[in-house]
Structures are given as structure tokens and as C-alpha cells.
Amino acid sequence: MRFLMMHRLDEREPEAWNPSPDFVKTMGAFIQESVDKGILITAEGVHPSERGALVRKPRGAAIRVTDGPFAEAKEVIGGFALINAADRAEAVEFAKSYVELFDSEIEVEVREVVEFDDLPPQE
User: Fold this and answer.
1) Is the separation of the CB atoms in 43 and 82 below 8 Å?
2) What is the SS3 assignment for 34?
3) Please, which contacts does 85-92 make with residues 24 or more away whose CB atoms are closer than 8 Å?
């Protein structure tokens, strides 16, 4: 099974976007170990929302684009990882290990990826 982990952080904390050399080294080792074990498929950090955009399509309305930063959002996605895990419990345990790497407050959402075989048969 594949799971998507999205980590959220407080965009107002500058240190969240400027990792220390020690953190980068620790995260790099964690990533390499996770790849070597066949758990991690890919992981990336993202830039602050000021470099992003939000594209919305309200029901029955035209598409709207809002440039960042997103003032209404305190917490934003700071990065993601796509992992292999036997089940949700194993994915959550991996997320706990990931969260332990951070000194700042962080939240990680773990979501199972919909696989083709999960979809109902098409007629």
C-alpha cells in the first residue's frame, strides 16, 4: 500500500523555512535509510505559500486563482512524502519517526493512496 504524508507547519515561523545544517544532515540520513529499506518512494519540501497559488473551481462558477501568501491559513504544507507501508498502522509509525526529527511544532497528515484496484469496475 502507498501512503501520502503531508507535513504542515506554521508559515509565520521563519525557522520553519530555514533548516539548520544539522537538521539537513539528520533529515538526509533519515531519507537515505528509508529509501534503502524500501519505505520511501519520494519526499520533497516546498517553498512558502508566497511562491504559490491556489486554484479553485466553485460549483457552477468560474475558476479563480489566488496568489500566495494565503493570509487565511496559519498552517501550510511544508513538504510531502510518498511511502510504502503494509497498512495504516505501519504508515503512522513511520510518520511518528519522521515527526521526531523536527524541533519545531509540526503536524503530519497520513492518507492512503487510491490504487487502480481500489476503484469499482467500469462498465
Assistant:
1) yes
2) helix
3) 85/1, 85/2, 85/3, 85/39, 86/1, 87/1, 88/3, 88/112, 91/1, 91/3, 91/5
pLDDT digits (tens, 9 = 90+) for 85-97: 999 999 999 999 9
d(CA 68, CA 79): 16
> What would the pLDDT profile of 17-64 be if each residue is shown by its tens digit?
888 999 999 999 999 999 999 999 999 999 988 899 989 999 999 999
What is 36-61 written as a DSSP string? HTT-EEEEEE---GGG-EEEE--TTS
User: Nearest-CA neighbor of 54 among 42, 65, 40, 69?
Assistant: 65
What are 17's strand-pairing partners?
Answer: none
Say how far apart CA 47 and CA 31 lie, in whole Å.
19
Residues 6+ apart with CB under 8 A from 1: 84, 85, 86, 87, 91, 112, 113, 115
Contact 68, 49 (CB under 8 A): yes
Tell me the one-letter amino acid at 43: A
